[in-house]
Amino acid sequence: MTTAKGNENDVPFLDLITPHVELEQELTKVFQQGLRTAGFIGGPMVEDFEKAFADFCSTSHAVAVSSGTDALRFAIMGAGIQPGDVIVTVPHTFIATSEAISQAGAHPEFVDVDEQTYNMSPERLREYLEKQCSTDPAGKLISRRSGRRVGGIIPVHLYGQMADMDAILALAEQYGLVVIEDACQAHGAEYFSKKNNRWMKAGSMGCAAAFSFYPGKNLGACGEAGAVTTNDAKLAGKVKVLRDHGQAKKYYHDVEGYNGRLDAIQAGFLHVKLPHLANWNAARRERAAEYNQLLEPAEGSVTRPHEPSWSRAVYHLYVIRTNDRDGMIKHLKEAGIATGIHYPIPLHMQKAYDYLNYRQGDFPVSEQVASEIVSLPMFPTLRADQQVRVAQEIMRCLRVEVAR
Q1: pTM for this structure?
Q2: What is the CATH number of the domain that holds 49?
Q3: Tens digit of each residue's pLDDT (9 = 90 or more) over 247-257
């Protein structure tokens, strides 16, 4: 959301206007090309973006689809997860992660997050696999909770930082599970894999990955859009069929599919923006470093993001924690500073998942984090003076709280 017609000192949470104004001529040419060729669905603009995004992610294939949710759902189906299989993910994420699992016919179960990174805890995952599952006579891993076969793991690269993929992939290999990355907030994030002895891009480590290009993402469309990345040609082919009503050839339907195609004009917009993404991500990292320095005096009252040595985060969001979250949000709002909460209610406590029969206290880290997080303004064109104002108001808020 962008602050509109506010005080000139107001600090918006997000700026979706400036990058589009700066690229207006190039974006307008994409629209004109669509009008003049009537190439609205599929075709060269989609194919060119797919190739460019696959190259960016260091993968062999990228398949453009209509949203990040569709990307994750189609990746699950393309990876061979069977109806009724359990997919293990985290409760501290947007509901699209678990929606995609359910809509693909699978069954979501959760493990808690790491208290420092807010991503899937490999320790909690190991505990789940060792203590909450058993092996049936056929050697299949079965969840004791649901009695269902466990088929896969979806780590979420939350806020623009990758999960600890070496540890997660090692557990997946040990138990014969597929790993699909939810990279919807992590375009360009990197992870140093000790196993491979190199930095690896988000979207290149699991059997497949899902990306969202919702407008506010690091790489955002001017509407809805998403993509699946993979190094598996067969999986990519399945996703292409699923996104287009189950047809590999027009009017010949091998399976029931979906209308999950990406509009060509949106693909064109994304292709225009993609060459700028590395610089935008670098600017976000600089803004995050500046926040870290500005907020250092508040250590003890504010928990800043933790970036492990194996991580190069791209700061889709800059998220802090504080005990009086509501008080801080109120203070910042009154000072003209927009904030967000990502996410206030863990998935296992959402009404939509009452049927899973989880209880409060089942995932204490997620529950604690959800009550304390505040997302501060973060975008590539965020100015230094705006960050200083945010930090100053946080300090004022904390001093007021202490004086009571």
Answers
A1: 0.96
A2: 3.40.640.10
A3: 988 999 999 99
